[in-house]
Amino acid sequence: MRLLLELSRAAVRLHARSCHQSVYSRHTNPRSVRVELGDKKLEISSGRLARFADGSAVVQMEDTTVMVTAVSKTKPSPSQFMPLVVDYRQKAAAAGRIPTNYLRRELGTTDNEILTSRLIDRSIRPLFPSGYFYDTQILCNLLAVDGVNDPDVLAINAASAALALSDIPWHGPIGAVRVGMVNGELLVNPTRAEMASSTLNLIVAGAPSSQVVMMEASAENVLQQDFCHAVKVGVKHTQQIIFAIQQLVREQKVTKRTPIKMFSAPNDMVEQVRKAASEGIYAIFTDYSHDKISRDEAINKIRLEVEENLKEKFPQAEPFEIIESFNTVCKEVFRGLILNEYRRCDGRELTTLRNISCDVDLFKPLHGSALFQRGQTQVLSSVTFDSLESSVKADIITTALSGVKDKNFMLHYEFPPYATNEIGKTGGLNRRELGHGALAEKALRPVIPKDFPFTIRVTAEVLESNGSSSMASACGGSLALMDAGVPISAAVAGVAVGLISKANPDKPTEIEDYRLLTDILGIEDYLGDMDFKLAGTNKGITALQADVKIPGLPLKVVMEAIQQATVAKREILGIMNKCIAKPRERRKENGPVIETVRVPVSRRARFVGPGGYNLRRLQAQTGVTISQVDEETFSVFAPTPGAMHEAQQFIHEICKDDQEQQLEFGAVYTATITEIRDIGVMVKLYPNMSAVLLHNSQLDHKRIKHPSALGLDVGQEIQVKYFGRDPTDGRMRLSRKVLQSPAATVVKTLSEKQSISMGSSNSHSTTSDS
């Protein structure tokens, strides 16, 4: 039996080797090309590392190097969409660091890793052939990071090269660059130091023939004409990267595999659906009384009838073919209405916004709140202030690899299942929610004052969703910030623009005709070719994200989309200004309070308490947090004025005047031992003081291991000399040892009675040092 098992394993290994023989032989000839991008050089190589993968490429800029592998199964997946997984992982070793968790391994995924994975996915997904449902995995491995050049854009180019050099069907390559703007000058792939002073962070992924596949941008109110110029510059440089990858493909003579099956609807089944259901579908899409739910229900009613008929006429058909046949006709009718008749399913003109309503100050206990409604998309936003200590702390690996630092402004986006009349899991965080929240956060961040004294958290909860909830979150967040009294520099609004296009029959990658749609519905996003989100102020652009579902967009279409979105954005701002036109002059009465407390060094130890006990107790009882500003100044944050009042009483009680101010530097006092410890004795100079440690090293000139060696015991009185407070930690400095030498003859005695009335100058006897 064991022999049979070993033979079967050997057969499997032999089959695997034969399957990968052609792949391995293709990659055994290392080749590389270089691209000049301004004053930087980008090197793309393949054939040396990870040669068992279907495709592998290494991209290097100066001392930052990224390797990406691509592997796709040869058997189709039981799916109705392209099963593509992109994983970008930050490796601590690439930055010369060790992870700080207890296992010292990379664990979980950070927000930055997820957002970069989405960036790569959105860049390469549109170029896979329609109906290619084969599990495909793209793994991005950081080999070395120099802290100067960011690896995220390099990873997009490496993914493009890995797919182009593999036998995986893919209509690439693409190229990607980052464009920054410093003092009005555009920089291609700027360094991290240059990006620190840049007013623009634009990532453009371009396809051949100067087409755009993906865009992601954050900007500090950049003017529309400057933004458009930056897009054109970025696309121009992506073409150089595309040419270089195409050169590598020609040199390696890459041949793409022929999939076993491409999943598409059979023509005869599609024709049958056209005859049976096209009129009914058309009637539903031209009935403007429908809303999202009723329209979906009406379409599903026709779907069920048609699918039953198809099962009878085509008993051998697969379930996917039946579903896709109906979807194909449904998509044809919907897109034809817009392309040929300029009609949208809700009756709007192509450039008309949905009805918008705004409201603020919904809940009095909140620091700020707003409800933004656009059609059937509804977002409830709230603002919460907290201390600067509550800011997001980036881990050392993320900081080293991507330059992401602590931030005191954050926007968290939530999309519960009831927003679309569904049932699902709640809690946790998925990639979509993280991506939508990051986009809305980018839109609002440029208008937040840099020196705001609190950490700001905006929550955007989608209560109803029918398209463009991320841009509604930006609008609602802007309203809530003004309601909270945050002095933002300008109001921010966002809108999504969609696309319905018709491809050239002779050249499928070219667009023959198209229509741009302002403020798209969920169905227009689902059945359309683009989701183009733009946010900004009346002056300029603060954020942009373009997701394209076709192999590329001409620059002309991109420029028109920016212009159309800008017009809609200004219209939305006009509606929002009627609700609240500027930030409230004062924050709400129940808002947080910050005060500074000056604590002399002599009282700092008592203020903080042993091991920070007093500060922890203060936070537990009042919710107040205290952070040290400098040697004598502490910043006190209270969530409400009432909490601040409680804290002030607490601090006053701890730091109230006592007899310590009467102690004289260099004087000798009688101290009472209150506790014996291994390392020394705890003593008090007067009854109501906190006991302080007199260390073994200060008890006697002789070296002792325990105070009992000197016959000391609790309640005993000893003479000690006072040397003031330690300037670094504020601890009282006492010594008995210095009094053991004949030179010290000063004695001061404080009885319990005298210690209560230290104000009298004759309360103790003093003699001069001899």
Task: Give a short summary of the structure.
By secondary structure, the protein is of the alpha+beta class. The protein folds into five domains: 242 residues, GHMP Kinase, N-terminal domain (Ribosomal Protein S5, domain 2, 2-Layer Sandwich); 75 residues, Arc Repressor Mutant, subunit A (Orthogonal Bundle); 224 residues, GHMP Kinase, N-terminal domain (Ribosomal Protein S5, domain 2); 64 residues, Ribosomal Protein S8, Chain: A, domain 1 (2-Layer Sandwich), CATH 3.30.1370; 94 residues, Nucleic acid-binding proteins (OB fold (Dihydrolipoamide Acetyltransferase, E2P), Beta Barrel), CATH 2.40.50. 33% of the residues lie in helices and 26% in strands.
